[in-house]
Amino acid sequence: MDIRRRPPKPPVNNPNRFSNDNDDQPRTKASDALPLPLYLTNAVFFTLFFSVAYYLLRRWRDKIRHSTPLHVITITELGALLALVASFIYLLGFFGIDFVQSFISRADTNNEFEDHRLVTCLPRGGRRGVVVSRADANNEFEDHRVVTCPPRGGRRVVDPTLPEEDEEIVKSVIRGVIPSYSLESSLGDCKRAAAIRREALQRITGRSMEGLPLEGFDYESILGQCCEMPVGYVQIPVGIAGPLLLDGCEYSVPMATTEGCLVASTNRGCKAMYVSGGGTSTVVKDGMTRAPVVRFASARRASELKFYLEDLENFDTLAVVFNRSSRFARLQSVKCTLAGKNAYVRFSCSTGDAMGMNMVSKGVQNVLEFLTDDFPDMDVIGISGNFCSDKKPAAVNWIEGRGKSVVCEAVIRGEIVNKVLKTSVAALVELNMLKNLTGSAVAGSLGGFNAHASNIVSAVFIATGQDPAQNVESSQCITMMEAVNDGKDIHVSVTMPSIEVGTVGGGTQLASQSACLNLLGVKGASTESPGMNSRTLATIVAGAVLAGELSLMSAIAAGQLVKSHMKYNRSSRDISGAMTATTT
């Protein structure tokens, strides 16, 4: 930002005036008073201190050996004592230079702000903002606050209700005296820290954050585990699809989304499943993975590690070491693949009701430390070598599975297909073959043999506090449709090999997300069997995906997709008034 202000008073007694980044005169430092450069002065006094200390210790040892009184000193020893004291005083002062300098800079900055109140202006027509002096500002700004001016017709970005103490902290954040990330630890009040950070951000950027709510959120709950440097929270509406009849239980499925028709479509699929007797699901595998990459001097040596890890006689030993990381972590398998002299070791373990990434990482760290005894030449390149594979589409997850591997199925009666889904069994079977199977193969899809599994997975993930980024592998799904009972009914199934969910830890402990988990009956850790709640949540996700697949495929087969989106996914609200208010 370009800076302009009235000429300051002649710096007679205080040459270290506050200046901006464009000032030509350098800021005066405490170290400028030294006759030599700082690094040379430090070297001299460090050498002097340790040299005379060593000399005096040797002299006193000799006096003790020869029974010479210690208080009897020579001229040389006296000089050494004086040099020791002088160097000690310098070193003591040296370590306090930065401390003293901070007070000097703070005092100068405060004086400068007393002389010049800054008014920061937003860009106008592509021009950069300027800072004008208090003499050029209106009298209404006589409170010496930093005021951000908006473009023509806008509003000021300054909060006039900000307490004076918080105002000073905002100024310090803007000047860089107080780091924004340290506000929570410095103030001890997370909400106040978020408000101050938000105000400082508005002044720095010159952009209002009106519309992003600040009130009504527990910022203490996210400290150190969910989000850093918060300035508010985003509101996402939560809709309910269901009841989803799955494995004899009814679930009202919460879906957080801003896509129109999604909840309504999934709800229609749930209805079709419900009146047809519901669906059934099975968790065929449950194990979180982590795959470090290690390197050796030769490929032969890397092969020896592979043979050692995959030898069943060594598994029990590795399991004992791995399982020390948690009372829920239980090592299930170890697989190793090579790329030259690099080894990628994929560990899989059960993690109870937690999603388990941290848990498995701790166990892997324990095993790597244990392996250094037999493989001291092993160089650990990274705790994750992407053979896991986390937050990326990967064939290894599609084939081997990661998290919960679930298959869910339902048989929809023919009359329900006609009355509720508005299509036919034959049309659905043909469309599934040509779109989800053949079309995905033509596109070279990896785990994407479905219509829109990621839509439902993302919505349920956000509502229940899962990691939205893990939607990448959790949405890998193949949808199968087959005519049964002499072509009268349709058998629908979804196979999802890597649903990564948990009911404890991370975002699941936040109030809103915890409420959604409670609605499903899977909040927190299971008291009956470790891991039961997270496995149930995975089956609910798969059941909701099946409902969503069934409804969307029916809409496409019936030619209703565009019509329904034009009706329910487009706002009919007159926004011309809002647009006028925004531009004036």
UniProtKB/TrEMBL annotation:
Highest taxon above the source species: Eukaryota
Gene3D superfamilies for this protein: 3-hydroxy-3-methylglutaryl-coenzyme A Reductase, Chain A, domain 2, HMGR, N-terminal domain, Hydroxymethylglutaryl-CoA reductase, class I/II, NAD/NADP-binding domain
EC annotation from Swiss-Prot or TrEMBL: 1.1.1.34
Annotated stretches, region: Disordered: 1-28
Lineage of origin: Eukaryota, Viridiplantae, Streptophyta, Embryophyta, Tracheophyta
One GO biological process term: sterol biosynthetic process
Subcellular locations according to the entry: Endoplasmic reticulum membrane
Name the UniProt record assigns to this protein: 3-hydroxy-3-methylglutaryl coenzyme A reductase
Top-tier EC class: oxidoreductase
Keyword ATP-binding: no
